[in-house]
Amino acid sequence: MASLCLILQRIHEAGPDLMRGAGHEVRLAGSLERAALLAEIAGARAVLTRDALVDAALMDAAPGLRVIGVHGTGVDNVDLAAATARGIPVVNTPGANARSVAEHALALVFHLAKQIGPGERAVRTGDASFKYRSALTELEGATFGVVGFGAIGRETARLARALGMEPLVWTRRAHDPAVAAAGLAHEPDLGRLLARADIVSLHLPGGPQTRHLIGRAEIARMKPTAFLVNTARGAVIDEEALAEALRGKRIGGAGLDVFAQEPLPLSSPLVGHENVVLTPHVAGSTEAALRRTATALARQVVEVLDGRRPDHLVNTDVAPRLWPEGAS
C-alpha cells in the first residue's frame, strides 16, 4: 500500500527516488512553521527529519504515523519516549557520513594548526609581517584526543593515525574493547586525556548525559596550546566557558561545526575570535555523504512500511510489539 512519506528538510534526491520506486508518495514539507506543519503531517505514515524537532504533538497530529527517520546519527531532536510509548519506530543512519565528518574534523585541525584563516587574510590585506610573527604547528607526533568512539570517532582516529598523530581515546566505558580492537590507547579518565592531548576532538551524541561535558573545569585541564574540535553536538561544550578561554588565550584555539543554537547568532561570544574556526554544521554535507545518508534512511523507512525490522532501530523497546519473532 502506498504511504505518504513527509520529508521535513530537504535531503539528497536519491532518498526520495528510492521511496517513490517502492511505490510510496513523497512530499517535502511546505513549511516548518508549527501550525502549518501540524496540518500537513496529518496524513503521513513516515516522517523524515534532519534536525527539525519531532515531538509528541507532531506524532499525535499524524495518527497513522508508522516510522520516524533521522538523517544522521544524533536523535536528540526526536522525543524518543513519546515515540516508544506510541509504538513508533525511530531509525537513523550511523556511519553513513562518518568519512565526511572525520575529514571535516581534521580540516578544522589543519586550519588551526597552520593558521589558514589568518594567513589568508594577511595575503588579502598585504600584511607581510604575518609570516614572521605566526606560530604554526606541526602535527606529526601530536597526541590526538578522541572523545567518543562511535563510527565517526573511529574514522577520525584512523585518519589522525595515518597522518602520524597518536590517538588517545576516551569513552564512557571504563574498558572499551572497540578501542583495543582498533589497536589504540584508551584513557578511562577524561581529565587525564584533556591534560595530555594536543588536540581534543569530540564525537559524542547529544542529550542530558553529555550536556556541557566540556565545561570550565575541563577546559582548564587542557594545554594552553591545545586545540578543541567539535563536530558532534553543540551542547557538549559550555560555549560561554569556551568563549572565555578563547578570549583569555587559555587554549590554542577551537574548531566548531556545531553549536547549542543553530544557526549560530551573530551575537554569540564565539564570533570575532581569531583563534576559532566556525562552520555551519556542514561536516556531513558532502555530496557522497548526503547520498549515502539519504539512501540508507529511505531504505529503512521502506523496510518499516513493508513490515520488516530495519537495520538501525533506535528505540528497540518497540521491537517486541512490531516484530515479535525477531525482537531479540
How much β-strand is present in the residues? 5-15%
Distance between the amino and carboxyl termini? 28 Å
Shape: globular
Largest sheet: 7 strands, parallel
Protein name: Hydroxyacid dehydrogenase
Domain D-isomer specific 2-hydroxyacid dehydrogenase NAD-binding: 106-283
Keywords: NAD, Oxidoreductase
Organism: Ancylobacter moscoviensis
Question: Could you describe the 3D structure shown?
Answer:
The protein has 328 residues and is of the alpha/beta class. It contains 14 helices and 12 strands. The protein has a 7-stranded parallel beta sheet, with helices on both faces. A 5-stranded parallel beta sheet has the order 2-1-3-4-5. α1 packs parallel to α13 (287-305) and α5 packs across α8 (151-162). This is Hydroxyacid dehydrogenase. It comes from Ancylobacter moscoviensis. Belongs to the D-isomer specific 2-hydroxyacid dehydrogenase family.
